[in-house]
Structures are given as structure tokens and as C-alpha cells.
Amino acid sequence: MQIDKGQIISLLKSQGDHSRADSADSELPQKVDTDKDAGLLSKLGIDPMDLVKKFAGDSGIGKKLGGLLG
After folding, report:
1. What is the pLDDT of residue 52?
2. Which residues partner with 2 through β-bridges?
3. d(CA 13, CA 3)
């Protein structure tokens, strides 16, 4: 799944994690691919699957997948 770096930074800041938000801003590409960039996300302490659940859920896709998978 492709996620804009700004969305990840906003999420981290909303959780009060400004240090990781700053690290993410300097290290992540503009468009983050949760599969391709999984190692980098993990290095930053970000679970790629949590991002998929969060952002896919915001668009309604996660709810549909949750129904299929759960």
C-alpha cells in the first residue's frame, strides 16, 4: 500500500511522538510503500501493518478487508 509520508508524520505527531516524526520526515521517501519500505519503517519503530490498518480503514478498504479476513 502506498501512503504519503505526510500522513505518517501527522499520525506520529498526533500521538505525541515528535522525535519519530522528525526521523520519519528525514528518512522516508515522499510516497511510502508499506511492503518495499517495511525495513525502514520497522527501523523507525513503525509497524507497516498498523499503517495499512489505519489508512486502509480511513478509506473504507480496511473495513471491507476486515470483514473478509476476520
Report:
1. 86
2. 33
3. 16
Is 56 a residue whose pLDDT tops 60?
A: yes
User: Where residue 2 falls among pLDDT bands split at 50, 70, 90?
Assistant: very high
Q: What is the DSSP letter of 36?
A: T
The C-alpha cell 515528535 sits at 18
Residue 49: name the closest of 1, 7, 6 by CA: 1
All cell numbers assigned to 65: 478487508
Cβ neighbours of residue 29 under 8 Å, at least 6 residues apart?
A: 5, 37
Angle at 21 between CA 6 and CA 63, to 5 degrees: 55
